[in-house]
Amino acid sequence: MKRYFIGLQSLTQSQLDAWVIQAQIPARSGGKLPDYIPGLAEAQPDWLAVHIRNVNGDIYASGDMTLSFPLMSAVKPFVLLYLLEQLGAERVFDQVGMLPSDRPFNSLAQLRADEGFPRNPMLNSGAIALMSLLPGTDGLSRCENLRQWLNEKADCHLVLDELILESVRSLRNETNIAIAREIADAGYLQASVAVTIDTYNQLCCLAGTVGDLASLGMLLVPFGDRVLPENCRIVKALMTTCGLYESSGSFAVQVGLPTKSGVSGALLSVVPGEGAIACYSPPIDAAGNSVAGLFLLEQLARNLHLSVF
Ligand code: GLU
Q1: How many CA atoms lie within 13 Å of 181's alpha carbon, on the beta-carbon side?
Q2: Which atom belonging to ligand 1 lies closest to the Cα atom of 201?
Q3: Beta 259-261 vs 266-271: how paired, if at all?
Q4: CATH 3.40.50.2300, domain 10-303, yes or no
């Protein structure tokens, strides 16, 4: 009789270890390090770590658990969650839309086509618009407020990676600045362009290990009174439709889990009701998603039947 393995709890450590070894192959052949943030280009292409946690508290980990990396865009779902908790959905969606996009993560053309109203919170434009709503007087205090909230709620240890922040600031990101100006001109920015961009840069440089990223992911698998289940539902829906930028649609078919990537090679998936999968491997594909991370998620989803669809 054929035996079916269903759900995260059916994962075995040896299975995970084997997939982590296999994941090195596509990472080496199909991925590149981003060059527009010099500090990210200094990462080693063979760095790889995965940390999986389920609601029973079981942990499966493979690779180098000590690697610390900046979250980059993997922080975006948590900026959204924080603002939903603080301000409510009505206020948040006055500021940003819910539509997917088939353009790249930093597309100014998409924003212009939408007359300065950011399409969704997973794109740079949407995240930048949301940064302007965060409480605090400057980039540092806004980032610190959110960092403390996340560490407390998710029981993790995010820190601001000062070296990467210096590196981000060393090459002025004209596209992100143009995005912020476009949003401001359309009347959707609630703080100055300078403070908003500084907040965005600092939040992208919040760093931790895959263990920390998995803890953040567990915030979206609600239990107790940490965050409102309704807000988790909104965040997971937008991760599913928009989290991997222009690859979101094909990823929904191939894997089918709410997921968010960062250009550092961070990749976080939530398995609703079950747990969280956090991966880190720096080589990314053309859309900005970790190649080894995508490979691992595909193996996990296919073999353990994790798709939500
Ligand atoms: N800081 C990066 C940028 O704005 C984040 C992008 C990403 O991680 O996808 O370009």
Answers
A1: 7
A2: 1
A3: antiparallel
A4: no
